Amino acid sequence: EPEVTQTPSHQVTQMGQEVILRCVPISNHLYFYWYRQILGQKVEFLVSFYNNEISEKSEIFDDQFSVERPDGSNFTLKIRSTKLEDSAMYFCASSPDRGKEKLFFGSGTQLSVL
Amino acid sequence: GESVGLHLPTLSVQEGDNSIINCAYSNSASDYFIWYKQESGKGPQFIIDIRSNMDKRQGQRVTVLLNKTVKHLSLQIAATQPGDSAVYFCAEIPYGQNFVFGPGTRLSVLP
């Protein structure tokens, strides 16, 4: 079965540093998402992306966050100046359609901000 | 605001028994529901889905029941196995909107 792949699986960074989390969604999917999960808490929506632009974002997704689809396969999440509270598992997901079909999740990137 | 929640945060069952995980939702506009399974260190994996025009759907060893009258969703796992140990999330999706995940129930299968 096709899958969403994320790299790296673990990322350790110093507070204030920029990080880029990478994702390769399933090739024929049109909608892309980033979610995060702080340890022991529920999965929280960050942003959705369609047709090369953000379609929706949550209040978590502030000016420190940005997303990009630099080519036909990658989908990235950038955090410009990381804070301690950005430490979480970040999941990329994709879907062939929005709100009508299941999301396929990657295995996540564990981000630790020191 | 609208939210999805779970009745039981943890559930322990004996291997071989049936498991029932419950979820309450509050958005009456939700027309699509999904159960995800999350094993430690992994991303959520799709288990089964159901649309609002159905009240029951069966998969392999799993059944999802939807009661729209009381806005309740349940996941039944038959003959629970050690590999079923995980956190289970329900998600509701109002038409054309993003998924809203519940907080999760941890299922522990006892030998």
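qc> The mean pLDDT of chain A is 92.
qc> done
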